[in-house]
Write a structure and sequence with these properties.
305 residues; alpha+beta; Phosphorylase Kinase, domain 1; Aminoglycoside 3'-phosphotransferase, Chain: A, domain 2; 2 domains; 3-stranded antiparallel beta sheet; 10 helices; 9 strands; 13% strand
């Protein structure tokens, strides 16, 4: 709290109550409530001015001087909505931000090759890692629950990695033939926790924002919320307003499909939960990607007809 006192005194807030939410502090006063957090980057003023220049206003602008050590925002009470409703509104605003901040630049083949080799190395590493685990577990006379669960789903992991490599190759072959690539401002930390939905919906926490491919916002959001949200319908809403290119979608699929590395501890329960979560993620993601691939193929057939 001592870190915040200078800003509180400077703006004469006179709080009667404080409440900490993660790394932010909610300040209650008789003349309105505020949220204060430590500033993580020095170029926030340029970022906010850029968004305003692009006529994008769905974000919170600080109430205090941007040269201060902290950021001070008006506290906004959210309207009570279901997660599905909130997620749909977020997809509309995300597509709006990506549309308004779109720019094109010449393809950097060295960067493209770097991405390709990094993903290829990751796929090969994971394939060897899980293959080695399988060989070790197969030698055990009795398998623990997590070992049995992993062995039962090894074909799924292996097939996913092989499919990832095929899509990666397709992406690389396509992208090296193009001359331009699209970049947008991406939030880079997109989740329902960083979106205030109400009469005046706002994205918050642009601490990690950067200019990059638009796919990475959906990748982060997907991995954060795939368990509880219908990603197929949310992706449809997003793509209706901001259509991804085939190359962007292929890279999106590669990013989504890559399984994480399960590291086993001495806790059998935690290990089993981790393997179960990986298995669940692969099931959901495989179905999501296969459906999107099927839609693309049907669209091509319709266009040819």
């Amino acid at each position: 709290m001592n870190d915040f006192r200078t800003t509180i005194t400077k703006y004469n807030l006179k709080p009667y109550k404080y409440k900490y939410i993660n790394k932010a502090c909610v300040i209650y006063t008789d003349h309105g409530n505020y949220v204060m957090k430590r500033k993580r980057r020095s170029d926030k003023d340029k970022l906010y001015d850029y968004l305003l220049a692009k006529n994008f206003s769905f974000f919170l602008y600080p109430e205090n001087d941007l040269s201060d050590e902290h950021e001070l925002y008006t506290y906004i009470d959210e309207v009570e909505l279901s997660q599905d409703e909130k997620a749909k509104d977020l997809m509309l605003i995300l597509s709006e931000m990506h549309n308004r901040t779109t720019a094109y630049k010449n393809i950097n083949l060295d960067k493209i090759k770097e991405i390709y080799e990094d993903k290829l190395n990751t796929i090969d590493y994971l394939a060897k890692y899980y293959n080695d685990l399988e060989e070790v577990f197969m030698m055990h006379i009795y398998n623990s629950p997590e070992e049995y669960l992993l062995l039962k789903n090894m074909d799924k992991i292996s097939n996913t990695l092989q499919y990832s490599k095929l899509i990666l190759e397709e992406w690389y072959n396509n992208i090296t033939k193009t001359k331009k690539e699209r970049t947008t401002l991406i939030h880079n930390h997109l989740s329902l926790d960083h979106f205030i939905d109400g009469r005046d919906a706002k994205l918050i926490n642009f601490d990690y924002a950067e200019y990059n491919s638009p796919i990475y916002d959906f990748v982060y959001f997907y991995k954060k919320h795939y368990k509880e949200l219908d990603m197929e319908s949310l992706y449809k809403i997003y793509r209706h307003k901001f259509m991804l290119t085939k190359e962007e979608e292929l890279l999106l699929f590669v990013e989504l499909m890559l399984p994480w590395k399960v590291v086993f501890s001495r806790n059998h329960y935690n290990n089993s939960v981790e393997v179960y979560n990986l298995n669940k993620y692969l099931d959901v993601t495989r179905n999501f990607i296969l459906k999107e691939q099927e839609k693309y193929q049907k669209g091509n057939e319709t266009n040819k007809a």
